[in-house]
Amino acid sequence: MDKKTVIKIKGLKKQYGSKPALNGVNLEVFKGELFAYLGPNGAGKSTTIRILTGLTKKTAGDVWLDGYHIETHPKQAKSQFGLVPQSINLDMELSVRENLDIHGRLYGLGSKHRKMRIEQVLRYVDMEEEINTLVKRLSGGMKRRIMIARALIHSPSILFLDEPTVGLDAKIRRRLWALIKKIQEQGTTIFLTTHYIEEAEFLAHRVAFLDKGSIITIDSPENLIQGVGNWALDFLEDGTLKTIYFEKRKQAKEYILTHTGSFSLRRVNLEDAFLRLTGKKMQ
């Protein structure tokens, strides 16, 4: 992975009336990196993406996308990224081809180039056979793949994915994971928000934990998990679910043998790290 910075955020703040949504976020994301931006509802994840993609005005701070400041060079900055929003915003009454063609026109692609890119991105997401299908006839997973294809049509260096697999079943989510990983491995920088903790754990090089508009920590999933322990023991105490962490499975087993109650032993995951740092669960 290249250490060239393609997303740079400095002192980013957003205020809605008297309520702060972002409290001076500082962040750098590198070329070819798959970066996960995690936090509970209301933490500021979608606000950050909306500012980075020009959909919401910041209150203070600076943002550069592949070297272009989003305010002083907005046109150049916008050309650097593709966006896959949380909500499906395709035109349901148009075909797959027509949806992609409109997007290509918005980015100034000529007719010949547009036709070539539509064929390329549909082949890339394994949807070329649906090119003339009306979007309303596609499944949820297919619509998500078309949204990814649409975001890639102008060959951006950055791809923003805001909850890209929300509402999909586990099998379809994993198919999209493979597609997202393929996009990243071919050099695109991916900035991902997700509620599915296992998604970030599987996909991301680095993770930022966001809580109440502030970044709590940034590290690799492996390092964050190792900072908690290897084994987690869940149990009920006075009607409350509690968890104890252990380095070794043997230690957890010994604890079970010397205590009464019902215990569930499992591997530590990324959500345990978030809980340890913030005192709250992701959702």
Question: Topology of this protein?
Answer:
Blueprint: E1 5-16, E2 19-30, E3 34-38, H1 45-52, E4 60-65, E5 68-69, H2 74-78, E6 81-84, H3 96-106, H4 111-124, H5 140-152, E7 158-162, H6 170-185, E8 189-193, H7 197-203, E9 206-211, E10 214-219, H8 221-226, E11 231-237, E12 240-246, H9 249-257, E13 263-267, H10 270-278
Parallel strand pairs: 3-8, 3-9, 6-7, 7-8
Antiparallel strand pairs: 1-2, 1-4, 4-5, 9-10, 11-12, 11-13
Helix pairs in contact: 3-4, 3-5, 4-5
* Bulk shape: globular
Give the beta-strand count. 13
What is the helix content?
25-40%
Number of helices: 10
Secondary structure class reads alpha/beta
* Integer-rounded radius of gyration: 21 Å
- Give, in spatial order, the strands making up the sheet with the most strands: 6-7-8-3-9-10
Query: How widely separated are the two ends?
Result: 31 Å
Averaged pLDDT: 93
Mind summarizing the main beta sheet?
6 strands, mixed
The percentage of residues in β strands lies in: 25-35%
SSE order, one letter for each helix or strand: EEEHEEHEHHHEHEHEEHEEHEH
Low-confidence stretches: none
Structural overview:
The protein has 283 residues and is α/β, with parallel strands linked by helices. It has helices spanning 45-52, 74-78, 96-106, 111-124, 140-152, 170-185, 197-203, 221-226, 249-257, 270-278; strands spanning 5-16, 19-30, 34-38, 60-65, 68-69, 81-84, 158-162, 189-193, 206-211, 214-219, 231-237, 240-246, 263-267. The strands form 3 sheets. Strands 6-7-8-3-9-10 form a 6-stranded mixed sheet, sandwiched between helices. A 4-stranded antiparallel sheet has the order 2-1-4-5. Strand 1 and strand 2 form a beta hairpin. Helix 3 (96-106) packs across helix 4 (111-124) and helix 3 runs parallel beside helix 5 (140-152). The longest helix is centred in the middle third of the chain and has 16 residues, at 170-185. The radius of gyration is 21 Å and the shape is globular. The model has no long low-confidence stretch (mean pLDDT 93).
